[in-house]
Specification:
Layout (H helix, E strand, L loop, with lengths): L2 H54 L3 H12 L5 E4 L5 E5 L7 E6 L2 E6 L1 H14 L3 E5 L2 E7 L3 H68 L6 H22 L7 E4 H13 L6 E7 L4 E4 L1 H18 L4 E10 L4 E8 L27 H12 L3 E8 L3 E11 L8
Parallel strand pairs: 8-10
Antiparallel strand pairs: 1-2, 1-6, 3-4, 5-6, 7-9, 9-13, 10-11, 11-13, 12-13
Helix pairs in contact: 1-2, 1-4, 4-5, 6-7, 7-8
Length: 404
């Protein structure tokens, strides 16, 4: 199992764990809410029966007892007659059931009709009323959930939010910590590689010069190509030495940088693959050429590997004058990438080749986004027909530049 698949599995496990916690919390709390609701219904019915006894008995002692039972209920309730007129209220907010009015220097406490109407409307929506027969008439007792029951209803959502935030923080911290460790390992490995390459590269350059002198072959093409490859090794070592540090960006002509690299690269792959660089040739951008060449190398190698037999690789440069951006589109006629993998291809460790490490596109994305402040993404791809990667960079304004 490659690292990307392992990371994906851990993500699914965390998600399943979060769902189990949330589901268990909701089920248990709903169980409590149902039982408390049933209990409050019973208490409301006790109060209703106490009302009936109060109105049907003349025994003062018994009345006091019944009032005590009735008042023990904390369920907010409103009693109406058959016409819907409010007869009795219980457990409502005393700060809102009366309003103060001043007239002729006197103050009266009077009922606030709007408050009672709003409360009654709310109670009708919450529960079916308890119907109580008093002599020849019927009273309807409406009630609503107590503050405790209301809190319990919202409790699972609050709990779920807290758990979600906790898991998100834990997951973020885990990813950040792991990424930091990976970065340190890769930076150390890259710098050590650059250091180890330094000595043999210097020796190779010296041996080539000795061979040229021995065979008097200063203009020999073979030695010239050998020198180019050794210089290429120097560039590779320089790339690795720059990983982990902020590279210096210098103003360069994009077309010239890309064309020079493509001319070097195309002689080192199959002649059945045709290369073409086209588009506007006057765009300037801030580049670190060794690192940007690394980006081109990774993209062109992937394009070559995607082509089976004969094919084409086109590099097109175009600009956006409004946003001061320049687009570099690298298109191949290879086997293509499924749409579901457009983001996945940039993940470290993801590869479709048996001997691949899955680091090329990951490094490419990092070089473009972290070091060149640009963007790279799969612009378009179709299976069996090819893929287009797009690089977006900030263009440096030039008087001769004419963008479309």
């Amino acid at each position: 199992m490659n690292p990307y698949q392992q990371k994906k599995r851990w993500k699914y496990l965390l998600l399943v764990f979060a769902v189990i916690i949330a589901s268990g919390s909701l089920l248990y709390t709903n169980y409590l809410v149902k039982h408390i609701a049933k209990s409050e219904r019973t208490r409301a019915e006790v109060w209703a029966m106490s009302m009936k006894q109060v109105l049907g008995s003349d025994d003062n002692d018994f009345l006091n007892y019944v009032f005590a039972v009735r008042d023990s209920s904390i369920v907010p309730a409103i009693v109406t007659d058959e016409k819907g007129e409010i007869v009795i209220t219980r457990g409502l907010d005393t700060n809102k059931t009366f309003i103060k009015l001043a007239a002729e220097g006197k103050k009266w406490l009077v009922y606030s009709p709007s408050y009672f109407e709003n409360e009654l409307s709310f109670m009708k929506k919450q529960h079916e009323p308890i119907k109580l027969k008093i002599k020849d008439t019927y009273w309807l007792i409406y009630y609503k959930d107590s503050a405790l029951l209301t809190d319990l209803k919202y409790f699972p959502y609050i709990q779920l939010s807290i758990i979600s935030v906790f898991l998100l923080m834990a997951y973020t911290a885990f990813n950040s910590s792991r990424k930091s460790e990976q970065d340190q390992v890769w930076v150390g490995l890259a710098k050590e590689t650059a250091h180890q390459l330094g000595t043999p590269i210097s020796s190779l350059m010296a041996w080539i010069e000795l061979l040229k002198e021995k065979f008097n072959a200063d203009n020999d093409q073979l030695f010239g190509e050998m020198e180019n490859d050794v210089k290429r090794l120097e560039i590779v070592a320089d790339r690795f030495s720059k990983i982990g540090s902020t590279p210096k960006l210098e103003e360069h002509n994009l077309y010239e940088v890309i064309n020079d690299f493509v001319n070097y690269f195309k002689f080192r792959v199959s002649k059945n693959i045709h290369f073409e660089v086209k588009g506007q040739s006057n765009f300037m951008a801030g580049l670190n050429v060794p690192l940007f060449d690394w980006v081109l190398e990774n993209l062109l190698k992937n394009a070559v590997n995607a082509i089976e037999g004969q094919g084409e690789i086109n590099v097109e440069i175009q600009g956006n004058k409004i946003k001061d951006q320049v687009f570099i589109d690298i298109t191949d006629s290879g086997k293509g990438i499924p749409r579901s993998k457009f983001e996945t291809v940039f993940q470290p460790g993801y590869t479709t080749r048996k001997r691949g490490w899955g680091l090329g596109l990951s490094l490419t994305k990092r070089i473009i986004e972290n070091y060149h402040n640009g963007q790279i993404f799969v612009k378009d791809s179709e299976l069996t027909k090819g893929t287009t990667f797009r690089i977006v960079l900030k263009a440096i304004k030039n008087d001769k530049q004419t963008a479309t």
